[in-house]
Amino acid sequence: MTQLKLDAIRADFPILSEVIHGKRLAYLDNAATTQKPEAVLGALDGYYRHANANVHRAVHELAARATKAYEGARDRIASWFNAGREEIVFTRGTTDAINLVARSFLQPRLEPGDEVLVTTMEHHSNIVPWQLAGARTVAAPINDAGELDVDAWRGMLNARTKLVAVVHASNSLGTINPIADLIREAHARGIPVLVDGAQAAAHIAVDVRALDVDFYACSAHKFYGPTGFGVLYGKREHLEAMPPLQGGGDMIDTVSFDGSTWNELPYKFEAGTPDIAGAIGAGAALDYLAGVGLQAAAAHEHELLGYATERMQSVPGLRLIGTAANKGGILAFVMDCAHPHDIGSILDQAGVAIRTGHHCTMPLMRRFEVPATARASLALYNGTDDVDQLVDALHTVVRLFA
Question: For the chain, what is the mean pLDDT?
Fold first, then answer.
């Protein structure tokens, strides 16, 4: 991606012109949430200004506009993932989607001692819901580079494994897992697979039919869309067999005091007034990403990751956590001289936004014997100037604390 093209992309994101503590903003907290382009902001504003009405429930013009835009977003999202529109369930985000699968798909199938096979690098949202559903979570190990030990993972599949739940791209390490291979191995044993795609959807082309994945979950705010909105893809045969988790609103077909029946897919899982603006904004975000070109954005981020990895090696006492051969644009690190929270505070004063803490991956922190890490994460609007600003600020940390 040329510098001229990068300048044009940055111009699409108003927040990048913010001045932070007198410095230009170097926003490197994209694994937490991405910024929103004008196209998404305009779609949200346009809905509230010109189509603010509930969907599916009225015949007036505003309701017609809202319903058309809302269901148009479902079509756009289904096309992006190569799914049937009835297989796209709107949720509040990845966490909500995984909880839906845990309670509606897994829990009714569980017997005492049944397991969900996860990995050591999972986000808490891909651990806790399975435990709440009553399953025993067992975690496959990773090596010192942060790569899944596939042989060990394969050996942990057994008759008690009721589901494989695996992250596509680690939020703490950047590791990209070989999910096509894992899905194939699990299916050979009759085990369904859920993939946590929160960190992958903005960086990797996902074809759910080609993968033959059973469930795929992601959040709009990770791919330049609004917060509070997410997507669950589920194979139609699974969704048909699953009972609804919540009652009320659009999820019904008929209601009486003697009993009720449920709406068709995907609406039986979408109780109450939905996040209409969120859906519209998510569709607009995917349109924007398609306009930039997912492949071009990924190539740019990969090149920038290489540059950042090399530059950060110049910082005395800095150690990267997560050096997988196949990884996305995440640089997690610790420094000998300072706690991650102190690092984050110094960087903030330099206009650099990163994330510090355990990143909702406490078991992973224990694996690497660190209480927390600092994490810089890349997006399509980042450039070498952001990395240079980060590295200069890290040298300031050394000067202050060493």
Answer: 97
